[in-house]
């Protein structure tokens, strides 16, 4: 896969995750007061993971050819971590 294609794919995945987080936030807004606090904590954790993934993708976009493979792997791992955190949070909802 070409470099720009990979970056676009990762940005697309990040965008999809952002939409999923927004859906969870909408559910949290209608939850009971007790559940709302727990949901908010999960959502904040997801948003932090999303920002980490975005940072990795931005690093990838600006990486030299020599650093490309290492940073690419880090970006993919960050998105995997975001998915795992999302799956965990979704179970709570």
Automatic annotation (TrEMBL):
Coiled-coil residue windows: 7-92
Q: Enumerate the UniProt keywords alphabetically.
A: Coiled coil
Name of this chain's protein? Coiled coil domain-containing protein
């Amino acid at each position: 896969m070409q470099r720009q294609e990979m970056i676009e794919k990762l940005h697309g995945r990040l965008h999809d995750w952002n939409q999923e987080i927004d859906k969870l936030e909408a559910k949290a807004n209608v939850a009971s007061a007790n559940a709302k606090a727990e949901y908010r904590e999960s959502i904040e954790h997801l948003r932090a993971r999303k920002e980490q993934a975005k940072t990795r993708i931005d690093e990838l976009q600006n990486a030299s050819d020599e650093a490309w493979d290492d940073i690419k792997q880090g970006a993919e791992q960050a998105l995997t971590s975001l998915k795992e955190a999302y799956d965990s949070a979704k179970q709570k909802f």
